[in-house]
């Protein structure tokens, strides 16, 4: 999944190159960020990316329907791609367990990408660590089953968004440590030097495995459009990104 | 050979012996349904059955919850080790169930009290 997100983020800037456009999904990815940091928009962008030409359907799990579709990431909203995204709205943890446990009974072609938004809401319902571990493991198992059904070396990616709290209490910390064991790849969305009329974020992708850490500068225009640029220090073109004054590595 | 046994014991301590014991007693069952989805069940020494996922590191036993997840002082429990050992030794029991039954097995695990 890390590869799909990397493609989404790389497309926004000049750094995007064709050679990175391989269809592999990459390892399961956990997307972390505070409320309103654009997690849903990025998930949706990843869904559109994975619904591209010649690729299987996408299964998008979220607790409630969108009020409006998130604005794109510079690409037009292609109805053909949109049609390939199947939304399901498990209203409770119990329903989510049922959906994942019975995923092999669902007819039709297996998805090439499984997305879940708002994992923290499902975990909050039943904070027992073993239940959290089982829910997470079942997400991985469901994606693994889809991969098995896709066959021919094709994998179903998995990308899960989790809202992080400003003040981490011990329960959240335990969950996060547990989740990080199951998700080799992680992407953090951190607020960074907000400008007037927009807010800026640093998207930091740890792809898992041996890949290098990559960073992007994400801003939301006042109309909701998400703008992505490579993080200045590594793009080699400081003028392409805003906020170059805060470009120091952490 | 004995050297493998010693390595296992060195790495996993008493879990190694207990896991091999589970393998010897053929306590590991690979359950599969026509969909191709699979799950392992291990009959523990206490007579309780635990569910281990085939695709990732998860066992429903209390030791996994406590020593592996919470305390991080073990990397796996004897049931998972038994599953991995039986995979390489090809000594799993096999059981075919319907897709619906496999759903129930996966769901039942959730209801099991830790």
UniProtKB/TrEMBL annotation, chain A:
InterPro entries documented for this protein: P-loop_NTPase
Ranges annotated as biased composition (Polar residues): 241-250
GO molecular-function terms, A-Z: single-stranded DNA binding
An example Gene Ontology biological process: double-strand break repair via homologous recombination
Region (Disordered): 230-250
Signal sequence region: none
One Gene Ontology term, aspect cellular component: Shu complex
Top-level taxon: Eukaryota
Lineage summary: Eukaryota, Metazoa, Chordata, Craniata, Vertebrata
Protein name: SWIM-type zinc finger 7 associated protein 1
Organism the protein comes from: Saimiri boliviensis boliviensis
TrEMBL record, chain B:
Gene Ontology biological process terms from the UniProt entry: double-strand break repair via homologous recombination; protein stabilization
GO molecular function term, any single one: zinc ion binding
Alphabetic keyword roster: Metal-binding, Zinc, Zinc-finger
PROSITE patterns per UniProt: ZF_SWIM
Annotated SWIM-type domain residues: 50-88
Protein name: Zinc finger SWIM-type containing 7
Name of the gene encoding the protein in the UniProt record: ZSWIM7
One annotated Gene Ontology cellular component of this protein: Shu complex
Family annotation (Pfam families): SWIM
């Amino acid at each position: 999944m890390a590869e799909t997100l990397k493609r989404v983020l790389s497309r926004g800037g000049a750094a995007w190159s064709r050679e990175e456009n391989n269809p592999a999904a990459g390892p399961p990815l956990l997307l972390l960020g505070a409320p309103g940091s654009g997690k849903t928009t990025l998930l949706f962008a990843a869904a559109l990316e994975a619904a591209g030409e010649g690729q299987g359907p996408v299964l998008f799990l979220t607790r409630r329907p969108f009020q409006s579709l998130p604005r794109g990431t510079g690409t037009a909203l292609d109805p053909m791609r949109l049609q390939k995204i199947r939304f399901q709205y498990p209203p409770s943890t119990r329903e989510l367990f049922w959906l994942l446990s019975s995923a092999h009974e669902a007819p039709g072609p297996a998805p090439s990408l499984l997305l879940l938004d708002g994992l923290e809401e499902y975990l909050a319902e039943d904070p027992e660590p073993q239940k959290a571990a089982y829910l997470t493991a079942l997400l991985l198992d469901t994606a693994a089953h889809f991969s098995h059904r896709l066959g021919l070396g094709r994998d179903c990616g998995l990308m899960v968004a989790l809202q992080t709290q400003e003040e981490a209490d011990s329960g959240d910390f335990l969950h996060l440590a547990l989740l990080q064991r199951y998700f080799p790849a992680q992407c953090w969305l951190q607020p960074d030097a907000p400008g007037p009329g927009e807010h800026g974020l640093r998207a930091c992708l740890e792809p898992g495995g041996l890949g290098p850490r990559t960073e992007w500068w994400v801003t939301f225009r006042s109309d909701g459009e998400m703008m992505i640029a490579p993080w200045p220090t590594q793009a080699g073109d400081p003028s392409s990104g805003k906020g170059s004054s805060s470009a120091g590595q952490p | 050979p004995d050297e493998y046994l010693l390595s296992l014991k060195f790495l996993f301590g008493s879990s190694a012996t207990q896991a091999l014991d589970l393998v010897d007693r053929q306590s590991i069952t690979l359950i599969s349904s026509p969909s191709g989805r699979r799950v392992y069940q291990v009959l523990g020494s206490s007579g309780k059955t635990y569910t281990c996922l085939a695709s990732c590191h998860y066992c429903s036993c209390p030791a996994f919850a406590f020593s592996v997840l919470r305390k991080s002082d073990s990397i796996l429990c004897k049931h998972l080790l038994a599953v991995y050992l039986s995979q390489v030794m090809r000594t799993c029991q096999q059981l075919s169930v319907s897709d619906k039954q496999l759903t129930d097995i996966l769901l039942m695990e959730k209801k099991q009290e830790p």
